[in-house]
Amino acid sequence: MRELTFASAFAEAVREEMERDPSIFVLGTDIRIRGGHFGQLKDIGQTFGPKRVVDSPISEAAMVGLSLGAAMTGLRPICDLNFEDFYLGAMDEVVNQIAKVRYKFNGQFKCPLVIRASSGVARATGPQHSQMLEAWFAHVPGLIVVAPSTAEDAKGMLKTALRGDDPVIFSFHKMLGNMKGPVPDGDYTIPFGQAKVLRPGTDVTIATYSIMAPKSLQAAEELEKDGISAEVIDLRTIVPLDVKTVAESVKKTKRLVIAHEAYKFGGMGAEIAAQIGESVFDYLDAPILRVGSKHAVIPVSPVLQEQITPGKADVVEAVRAVMEGVAVR
Amino acid sequence: MSTNTQSAQLPNKHDVRSFDSEFVLDLLKEMLRIREFELRAEEQTLAGNVVGGVHLAIGHEAVAVGVMKALKSEDYVTGPHRGHHIVIAKGSDMKNIMAELMGKATGLSGGRGGSMHMADVETGLLGVNGIVGASIVVATGAAFSAKYLGQDRVAAAFFGDGGANKGQFHESLNMASILDLPAIYVCENNEFAVETAVSYSTGVDHIAERGSSYRIPGIIVDGLDVLDVYLAAKEARLRAVQESRPTLIEAKTYRFKGHSIGDKENYRTKEEVQERMKSDPIFKLKHQLEDAGWLNEEQWNEMKLDVENEVAAAVDFALRSPLPDAATALRHVYSKEVF
């Protein structure tokens, strides 16, 4: 199989789908020539021209609102907000408008649109360019929320998004962009709501997504040296959330650690832990532990940032704690 | 007391005799249909048969009717929370509108939306909206769509003077201007955003002036004169289809009733409202038609009876309609079942 970066697999999906479906267009800032702030859609502008790759002023409300109006009237927008933090300029459009349009009008309109933005912490991205807001979006009925961790999934899940009829929040972690992975040749899609076992194991389950998936795999390798066999599950989509796969794994391993970069407090880990507690509590031999960012603004200094955001070591520590059957602080 | 820029009793700008008599009579009847609907909606609300908040558009009839008569049926329309007149003028069946107010299964949105969230895919109504300013961006997207698909179609956004102070207004006008979109932005300036007067809330004398910031013609019309609204909207539609350029229309109207049913209206006097009601768009046009010899008392009574019967049938239909099936409460959150 070919090896592609996450970013080029994503861009390949955009290109292939735009060739297949003329109703797909891209709306974003600095998108046509530069390909977005991360070069995430480099060359798409040259290939498809200004009609289908539309440069937008920095007007997030109008970008998302326009995408909604276009989606309701026969088009399939890919709205590129560059940074996930920039959703905040369009939160009414996301929460009050696109998430509700199908329901409030009794299914009269479809809302097939994708909003892509780069999430998470990179070195020194700081307070307003580092956030992971998936728990906010997950709390709003009507939004599909995806956060893939591999190149293969990035391509396949974007294709699913562009062929579906729901609004999709596509979370693209900054540090995943250059990560390479195998990508199948030819056309394929990855369904939403199906977690993937990235690495089988028998002693502990690590449920994770996005950037913490590769970090959890590294943690599992380290733990293996100590004879601890960790099963790593990549949830891939936040909504729909495949807790069932996690529950099946927990029945086998009896222990669960949930790892995400977003804040631990009020994060998706709390939801997953609660659902596991509700469904397979009796199988647990240890408290469920969560790994996530500490509750602080993300600072720009890397020294401070590392104190707040989780890494491989935090996953290792949490796993060791549940293996001993006790909670860390 | 408001210091509005509009005199309560402007002389009629247009001679009805320069229009086709059937056309003007139809404008009158359309306005009357809306008025009667609103009066009965108020009655049904006070009787406890309506679920949810209701914002009456009494006084706004000429804006919706004037614009809609200038549009083609395939054109897209979005509206704000005060939107019954827009839904009616765009062509939805009053039966389903009244049923929606009562939260019935036969309602335009199946009882899911109520007064503030009605849409009709059949008429091109992309929804009235519970959020001030939100209608503006959605119409901008529909205008984008029409241009992208090469359709002879425009999109009109209705919003209030309150909406014109939201970022969505400015972002949309700028976006429509730079992208050359066939959009018509219709501000129904009724002088109050809930109870905050436009003279306090708005940093320009006329909202239409804001068009110039975006190289968009800003046109002020008498929103209590349906012919004035119609002519401006017709010109705006022509500009949209021929030049693919947006227009901002500010219709100076007045809200004859409170913000919503139950509003104590402490922000204005009864005398002010009574004075302004002398410019009632329906009676103004009625008198013009009588002066032209196109309408006599008998014809007026016949028109009124027709309209009363239609609205009474709508109320009856709504009252008799079934409630939604509780088992469908989770339907339509997503295209497929997710939870």
Structure summarized in a few sentences:
Chain A: One of its GO terms (molecular function) is oxidoreductase activity. The complex is a heterodimer of chains A (329) and B (339). Chain A starts with a strand and ends in a 6-residue tail after the last helix.
Number of strands of chain A: 14
Low-confidence stretches of chain B: 1-8
Q: Say how many strands of chain B there are.
A: 8
- CATH C-level category of the largest domain in chain A: Alpha Beta
Helix content of chain B: 40-55%
Oligomer: heterodimer
What is the number of helical segments of chain A per DSSP (H or I, 4+ residues)? Answer: 12
What is the helix fraction of residues of chain A, given as a range? 25-40%
Low-confidence stretches of chain A: none
Return the structural class of chain A.
Answer: alpha/beta
* Biggest sheet statistics of chain B: 6 strands, parallel
Q: What shape does the CA trace of chain B take?
A: globular
* Helix/sheet category of chain B: alpha/beta
| Strand percent estimate of chain B | 5-15%
Average pLDDT number of chain A: 96
Q: Let me know the CATH homologous superfamily of the largest domain in chain A.
A: Thiamin diphosphate (ThDP)-binding fold, Pyr/PP domains
Gyration radius over CA of chain B:
19 Å
- Would you list the SSEs of chain A in sequence order as H and E? EHEHEHEHHEHEHEEEEHEEHEHEHH
Radius of gyration of chain A: 20 Å
Biggest sheet: strand arrangement of chain B: 2-1-3-4-8-7
**Residues in β-strands, percent of chain A:** 15-25%
Cofactor (chain A): thiamine diphosphate
Domain Transketolase-like pyrimidine-binding (chain A): 4-178
Pfam families (chain A): Transket_pyr, Transketolase_C
Protein name (chain A): Alpha-ketoacid dehydrogenase subunit beta
